[in-house]
Each structure stands twice: as structure tokens, then as C-alpha cells.
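forwarding from the other thread:

> can someone predict this with S-adenosylmethionine?

sure thing
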Amino acid sequence: MPAPRHTKETLNLAAGAARPLTLAQRSNLLAPTAWGYAAWRARSLTWLTGQPFALEREATLFRALCRPRPGERWLDAGTSTGFYAGILAGAGCEVVAADLSPPMLAAARRRVPEPAVDWLLTNLEASGLPVASFSGITVGATLNETRAPDRFLAELQRLLRPGGTLWLMYLVRTGGPLQAALSRPALGGLTFPDPAWVARQLPACTRTHAARWGAVTFERYERGR
Ligand SMILES: C[S@@+](CC[C@H](N)C(=O)[O-])C[C@H]1O[C@@H](n2cnc3c(N)ncnc32)[C@H](O)[C@@H]1O
């Protein structure tokens, strides 16, 4: 397996101490979660949407709406085991695949041995990466897990260059009892945002596409020029 080009670490532990992680985020720091994640991911959208939703269907939707091009620089925000990073590398993009979990990044590097991917350990609520450094950003459900989704979205908007694409897949608020339970800090601390709230966190961006199956939404935003 070729070695990854770089593995950088910008996890600011002092900042992390001031901003404790959710239980869901902490569960991703455990090696067994990382070992099982790809298997869960392959089936999760079928369970969550209530219809056949293989990874290839999600990849096809992403490629059709976002059209990543060779040479573009993309960020995969909360890559876990590298699903979107792999699609982007396959499209010829330069990819920064970021996550705050070392075991997830280790599993991703094994699963996606692509030299075009830089694996980056960081908390994307405050990454320290240069402003406007990406043509596109993918977010596969990280919005549901991050501790402060407002800070997370503000940071992604900061990192997106004018005219750039932001792709979000997340579970929307349904008001159901299961979501209410999983939102409690002791049971995960997950967030299930309302799409209108998400749009308000991205004032420099326009939502160009939205498609929803059950509680799962896919949204494409474009940053103004
Ligand atoms: C639901 S999983 C993402 C799945 C992946 N994007 C995909 O499409 O298969 C959430 C991932 O985001 C990471 N994560 C959560 N909050 C984060 C943050 N603030 N910064 C960086 N990574 C984060 C977790 O460690 C976890 O691996």
C-alpha cells in the first residue's frame, strides 16, 4: 500500500479542552468504532431512508450535482473511513480528508490508499487552515455529530473559496422521540438541524439543490463570488 503523502496534525488540544466533545464524537475515538464504521456506513442510508440506498447511489447523486473536476482541491470534513475522500480522489481531485479521530483516519488510510489524499487530524470547528483554500467541501453527516454545528458551518464557509461548492448530507430534525433522546448529552449529544437553520448559518452561500428521503437530506450550496 503506498504511504499517504502527509499526515498532518492540527488538533489543538488546549482548544479541545475548552470545547469538550460530544459523546458521539468521543465514541469515534475508539478503535472498535472505526473498525465497524465502514460496514455501518454501507447500510446506514438504506435503514435511515427506508429504501434501497447503496453507497453507489449516494456517490452518483454527489457526482451529478457537484461535478468534482481533476485538479480541484476538496476538503472531506469528518471523513471517518474516507467514503467521500475516495470518490474525490477517483475524480482526480486533490483531497484533504480531516477528522478528529486518529483510529478513523488510520482505518480510512487503509481503505483509501490514494496518494492524492492528505489525512488531517483536526477539529473542524476551528481548523486553522487558510481562508478560501478549497474549491469544494463534502460533509457526510458530521453536522449531526459535531459539538457546535454553528461554529462548524462558519468554519467551512470560511474555508470555501468564492464560487466553491459545499455538499451536505445530514439527518434533519423530525421532532420524534428517538432524536430527542439522542440529542441528550448523556445519550450522544447529537444535533438534528432544521434545513432553514443550516441555511442561516451560511449567509455567504446559496442553496442550489436539496433532495430528501425520510429524515436524510442532501444539499448543495455554492459560495457567492
Ligand atoms: C457520521 S461520521 C462521518 C461519516 C463520513 N463523512 C462519511 O460520509 O462516511 C462523523 C465523523 O466526523 C468526525 N467529527 C465529528 N466532529 C468533528 C469535528 N468537529 N471535526 C472533525 N471531525 C469531526 C467524527 O470523528 C466521525 O469520524
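The first helix runs from residue 13 to 18. thats all i got for now
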